[in-house]
Amino acid sequence: MNIDDLRANWNSIDIPAGMCRPVQELERRIVSSNVTTLRSRLLHIYVLLGVMCLMGVLFMIPFVKDLPRLVVCADVFYVVVSGINFYMSSLVRRIDYSRMTVKEALEAVYKVERYKIRARMCTIVMAVPLICYMIFSFAHLYGEVVLFGCGCGAVLGGVIGIIIHRRMMSVLREMRRQLTLLDEEQA
Fold this sequence. Notes:
Elements: H1 3-12, H2 17-31, H3 38-59, H4 68-93, H5 102-142, H6 146-186
């Protein structure tokens, strides 16, 4: 077979139009730097949570006049939880696959998981009394009608927290799975 026959055979290959679209989409995302890694997704979640906690400090400003102790307690909570989230983001930022061995990266992911569990426990321990204090303070200030709204807000916040936690844990599990597969291949 000469080069002309090879070229004719190559040009005669008919690739279905639907096959090229996913490849072209991936190429476009790579060129525009829109491909995200698991690490960058996790980092984005932690930074976003940290910023939202800092915004919580601002949301308490309207209650300074009527409930100053509640505002102080809530602001301390928001600042501490924001600090925890930014610390967790720094742990995730330190995971650098290009400079770490697979074993070091796997250990770093385990460290993030351990700290995630500790941070979640600390946050829950601080949040439950704060939520109770908020509910009773708002009920005392605005009347018992507010109890239902506060309870619904607490339940909704808990559901959102569970969803975020599950998403973060699934990303961590996937990171651990991929690194474990790479570690097994190297062994």
